[in-house]
Write the structure tokens for this entry.
Amino acid sequence: MILGRVIGTVWSTKKDENLTGAKFLIVRELSLDYSEKSNFVIAVDSVGAGEGEVVLVATGSSARQTTFTKNKPIDAVIMGIVDRLDVPETKE
Amino acid sequence: MILGRVIGTVWSTKKDENLTGAKFLIVRELSLDYSEKSNFVIAVDSVGAGEGEVVLVATGSSARQTTFTKNKPIDAVIMGIVDRLDVPETKE
Amino acid sequence: MILGRVIGTVWSTKKDENLTGAKFLIVRELSLDYSEKSNFVIAVDSVGAGEGEVVLVATGSSARQTTFTKNKPIDAVIMGIVDRLDVPETKE
Amino acid sequence: MILGRVIGTVWSTKKDENLTGAKFLIVRELSLDYSEKSNFVIAVDSVGAGEGEVVLVATGSSARQTTFTKNKPIDAVIMGIVDRLDVPETKE
Amino acid sequence: MILGRVIGTVWSTKKDENLTGAKFLIVRELSLDYSEKSNFVIAVDSVGAGEGEVVLVATGSSARQTTFTKNKPIDAVIMGIVDRLDVPETKE
């Protein structure tokens, strides 16, 4: 999964008939220190993510394994909202 | 999904038998400020996208989840035309 | 799909039992002005593409959606030969 | 598969209903000399991997081919713990 | 498919139950002049590839289309051993 932050919304009226009601969010990829990377992905929300929230995004066919996204032309889904990262820096 | 702009068309007469009628569009990837990136993808249109329009492209097996693209050797489909991006820059 | 040019052939005698008869072509990725990029992909031919021809390549599971490639360990297929690109440069 | 090292954990309370009990680990990609690369992936653990361990990660639809991950919106799974790499440097 | 050379082996005792007997090989990607690239992939062998051999690797769901890899959490498989590359440099 990709670690990212929701930074905006894409509005699309004319879209595939199966996509009615889909909420397209813009997710900027994050480093482990929460700094933003340059790349982003447009993902459909399946967990009620809001702007500014840190999220997990599943891509590819796995993006279609939620109740809403099943059998739809969607290749990225927000399937989790991140509470916290635990990254103990020293492992020696 | 990828954010892109339709910048042209690919003409192909000799193609897989299942692809008769497919419209191959050239989609240049876009940044969030609509500036064009260097990479592009050839995608099949499923929503009537025209040249110059900003679109969403789904890739991989998800590209085959539209009525037209089902069971076809197509790995990228335009499944939405973008009306507007909402990207509030300041989140502090 | 990827835009590329067939630049050679891979010969493989010892291969998966399902791949008998498969023709593996080397496809160099192209820019829209037909200049060659550094990356390439090995793809199975399904449309009778010959050396030097400009082609479209579908990758991933979509590469298995042709009569010949179905259910085979193939992740890239040439599914169209390109006649022409139409890329009107000025859109203002 | 990707070679990586488990360097941390992602905590997520609000997630897809099918993901209850999933353990999201942060896996930093490794070079063959075990030096860490800059990129990382969030993967679900299916083999009891612990922090600091070197692991193999399968991505895409293949990540859903374990008992736990089946039919879930998961695109990366730890499916093996690495004991040792054998890389004889000289092949002449 | 990816062109690569087998340069080593990954040993893994603790792995997904379906992976018993899987042979994980380290495959370094190659350029068309057989020079090694920096990236590598861990792939399961399905054709009896040995160290030093030049091979083709199929990735993604296509990696599960061999008798051994079917329904297993494997995203890369060696499905061919390369005898020879034919790359006529001049096409004018």
Observations:
- Chain B has a mean pLDDT of 95.
- The domain at 2-81 of chain B is CATH 2.40.50.220 (OB fold (Dihydrolipoamide Acetyltransferase, E2P)).
- Chain B touches chain A at residues 1-3, 32, 46-48, 56, 58-63, 65-67, 69, 77, 79-88, 91 (CB under 8 Å).
